[in-house]
Specification:
The structure holds 2 protein chains of 2 kinds. Chain A is of the alpha/beta class. Chain A folds into 3 domains: about 170 residues, 3-Layer(aba) Sandwich (Rossmann fold); about 160 residues, Rossmann fold (3-Layer(aba) Sandwich), CATH 3.40.50.1220; about 180 residues, Thiamin diphosphate (ThDP)-binding fold, Pyr/PP domains (Rossmann fold). Helix content of chain A is about 35%, strand content about 15%. In chain A, strands 3-2-4-5-7-6 form a 6-stranded parallel β-sheet, sandwiched between helices. In chain A, strands 11-10-9-12-13-14 form a 6-stranded parallel β-sheet, sandwiched between helices. Chain A is globular. Chain A starts with 16 loop residues before the first strand and ends with a helix. Chain B is an alpha+beta fold. Chain B has 2 domains: about 70 residues, Alpha-Beta Plaits, CATH 3.30.70; about 70 residues, ACT-like. Chain A, domain 2 (Alpha-Beta Plaits). In chain B, about 30% of the residues lie in helices and about 40% in strands. In chain B, strands 5, 6, 7, 8 and 9 form a 5-stranded antiparallel β-sheet that branches. In chain B, strands 2-3-1-4 form a 4-stranded antiparallel β-sheet. The chains are: A alpha/beta, B alpha+beta.
């Protein structure tokens, strides 16, 4: 987001003496905010009074966590900064999960929280919590505003920090007396951030070294993450893969950065990634990581990860480089800029042997499931959704099996299409994320592919979708279990299904009671037509797919194993 | 290996908590941490002694630099520096032992800063090893109290103009 200094002349039509609450609203508008999420409360009354007739669309969640996920998904879907407001104490505490989710996945978010009056801080006042203390580890930056004179500057800084470099959530805590105190707003608002410097341009020598390594490589793999999407570098990625002729594998958050229908796509890698991606990474002689952070779900056993490869790592965050895996050619900077430079220096190479090998793995081990079963297979539901939406829906997910199947069986084609809690793995993200995405993209079809237990966590937000008439589609892959944990219990705990079963409500009835459409599907033959009618439904709707209860996600790299030591390949092969 | 890391930080509330929290959250061990004002009222200097291998200390340095109010981070390892600890120590000192204790203090170039009937308080500064040696030398007399600052350091400047 561009932040321009405001001169007093530009706001000459308004009085230059303003209360803090008005300064906040004016700064939000100046930062280009036209939509925000929030939940009111005692100490944010002055701010909400100013929001009453402000030209900002306001979405009121039913719980602050939901609101924070909505703002997060709004940001992921639109590329803009998401804004969430909450009151002090419990309101601020309820943001923690949402902030941590955004922090792990580098989502630009500005959270504004009310705080008790300055002179009461530290006195255990009603609805007081040490908000900056509680949220410090889950924000990129946070601070409390003790003087109204600092307010405009701090809000401007918050947007700048949230949206630049490696983005992340920023929280500004504002005591209620600061909201009502008046102050002059003459003069430009200048940021004071001596410790915050950006390094978007990559070092030219490092880029040349990377290009030389690519040109020399016989068996390269591009391994890309969410950083490509954040940097809006999908075009450059496509050009690089084409010009240098490179296969591309993506992390969960990277899905959508490269069209999965292309033959160069190796789809997702890692714990539940494709066998062909994992084999390619383990056998490659050059791994080109861009905007990815070598997460443990990607690398499996670190000491045997990509054992033959020289590693190039392009990332905006120097602390991500050589954190988990030793990097041979680090390039710090913005993915879009660096890839743009890299394209100029790489050469096309056929690499026929390498691509033949990959094609062989792809043919032998595609993502598969047993579709001869008379029961509804969760993978089938997702394949059918993908087919009917022509690979073009925005998909949000819960966390667990539903998320992994969505990643395996929906083939994404463009960035900002899959919104999922990758790093933190926050169950309950799917529904509020669908709401935030639909608010950002009213013309898109937004589908939450959810699990029953993930949905249970935030289903109260259905009321928000109904209130705002958002035609989101919630597809619950209902197996009655906390499926991924059950899978681990099956494989590693002798099928002792300890506390992974919870009694569920009738979701279709719940949906109808909340004013949404609801349907239950328990026959496989009904799946296509229910999805078809779901796609034309104007109301928010919930489809409860009663799927095979003990279906597993394959392949799977067991904890502590190398990523080419996958379980379930025999099962996949037997389905061929 | 011990590394002395020097961080220039904005003089704002919450910065120490942020730095200390980052160390705890990422399981880095702090040997000592000293914060003090600098010649610029907007900035403070944190001198942090960390023990770890090169990979760990590199992460410490990068994670510190990532904290928004941290302005500059330097790892002094391999550089010529002056590093000092300051200690205040109260030693049991009955009158009959005083002469030998006094000569010990003199040998270490310490300074008596308080005298009571049965004890002496001493101020002593120097490299960490010297402080440790003084503590060991005082042990036979009985140590009543120790307060130490932890290490502070500055790089040595070039002795001749380039």
């Amino acid at each position: 987001m561009k932040s321009k200094s405001r001169s007093s002349a530009e706001s000459a039509d308004q009085s230059s003496i303003k209360a803090g609450a008005q300064i906040i609203v004016d700064m939000l508008i100046e930062q280009g905010v036209d939509t925000m999420f929030g939940y009111t409360g005692g100490v944010v009354l002055p701010l909400f009074d100013r929001l009453y007739d402000a030209p900002i669309r306001f979405i009121n969640p039913r719980h602050e966590q939901g609101g924070c996920h909505m703002a997060d998904a709004y940001a992921r879907a639109s590329g803009k900064v998401g804004v969430m407001v909450a009151t002090s104490g419990p309101g601020a505490c309820n943001l923690v999960t949402g902030l941590a989710t955004a922090m792990m996945d580098s989502v630009p978010l500005v959270a504004l929280t009310g705080q008790v009056r300055t002179e009461l801080i530290g006195n255990d006042a009603f609805q007081e919590a040490d908000t900056t203390g509680i949220t410090r580890p889950v924000t990129k930056y946070n601070c409390i505003v003790k003087d109204v004179k600092d307010l405009a500057r701090i809000i401007k800084e918050a947007f700048y920090i949230a949206s630049t470099g490696r983005p992340g959530p920023v929280l500004v805590d504002i005591p209620v007396d600061v909201e009502v105190t008046k102050c002059s707003t003459d003069g430009p608002v200048e940021m004071e951030l001596p410790g915050y410097r950006l390094r978007p341009k990559g070092n030219a020598r490092q880029i040349s070294l990377a290009a030389q390594a690519i040109n020399k490589s016989d068996q390269p793999v591009l391994y890309v993450g969410g950083g490509i999407i954040i940097a809006n570098a999908s075009d450059e990625l496509r050009q690089l893969a084409k010009k240098a002729h490179l296969p591309v594998t993506m992390t969960l958050l990277g899905l959508g950065s490269f069209d999965q229908r292309k033959p160069e796509s190796l789809d997702m890698l890692g714990m539940h990634g494709s066998a062909y991606a994992n084999y390619a990474v383990q056998q490659c002689d050059l791994l080109i990581a861009v905007g990815a952070r070598f997460d443990d779900r990607v690398t499996g056993k670190l000491t045997t990860f990509a054992p033959k490869a020289k590693i190039i790592h392009i990332d905006i965050d120097p602390a991500s480089i050589s954190k988990n895996v030793h990097v041979d050619i680090p390039v710090v900077g913005d993915a879009k800029e660096i890839l743009g430079e890299l394209i100029k220096e790489v050469e096309f190479r056929e690499r026929k042997k390498w691509f033949d090998k990959i094609a062989e793995w792809k043919k032998k081990y595609p993502f598969r499931y047993d579709n001869t079963s008379s029961k509804i297979k969760p993978q089938y539901v997702i394949e059918e959704i993908c087919r009917q939406t022509k690979n073009d829906a925005i998909v949000t997910t819960g966390v667990g099996q539903n998320q992994m199947w969505a990643a395996q069986f929906y083939k994404f084609t463009r960035p900002r299409q899959l919104l999922s809690s990758g790093g933190l793995g926050t169950m309950g993200y799917g529904l509020p994320a669908a709401i935030g995405a639909q608010v950002a993209k009213p013309e898109s079809i937004v589908i939450d592919i959810d699990g029953d237990h993930s949905f249970n966590m935030t289903m109260t937000e259905l009321a928000t979708a109904v209130e705002h008439n958002l035609p989101i589609k919630v597809c619950i892959l209902n197996n009655g279990y906390m499926g991924m944990v059950r899978q681990w219990q099956e494989l590693f705990y002798n099928k002792r299904y300890s506390k992974t079963y919870l009694a569920n409500p009738d979701y279709a009835a719940v949906a109808r009671a909340m004013g949404a459409a609801g349907e239950t599907v328990d026959k496989k033959d009904d799946v296509p037509k229910v999805i078809k009618s779901m796609l034309t439904e104007k109301k928010p709707c919930v489809i409860d797919f009663r799927v095979e209860r003990e279906e597993n996600v394959w392949p799977m790299v067991p904890a502590g194993k190398s990523i080419d030591e996958m379980s379930g390949l025999d099962i996949l092969e037997s389905m061929a | 290996m011990k590394h002395i890391i020097s961080a220039l930080v904005e003089n704002k509330p919450g910065v120490l908590a942020h730095v200390a929290g980052m160390f705890a959250a990422r399981a880095f061990n702090i040997d000592s941490l000293v914060v003090g004002r600098t010649e610029d009222p907007q900035l403070s200097r944190m001198t942090i002694v960390v023990v770890g291998d090169d990979k760990v200390v590199e992460q410490v340095r990068k994670q510190l630099a990532k904290i928004v109010p941290v302005v500059k981070v330097q790892d002094f390892v391999g550089q010529p520096i002056v590093a000092r600890d300051l200690m205040l120590i109260t030693i049991s000192a009955p009158p009959e032992k005083r002469p030998e204790i006094m000569s010990l203090i003199e040998m270490f170039r310490g300074k008596v800063v308080d005298i009571a009937q049965k004890s002496l308080a001493v101020e002593i500064s120097g490299p960490e090893a010297k402080i440790e040696a003084f503590i060991n030398a005082c042990k036979p007399y009985g140590i009543k109290n120790v307060a130490r600052t932890g290490t502070i350091a500055i790089p040595r400047q070039a002795k001749t103009e380039p």
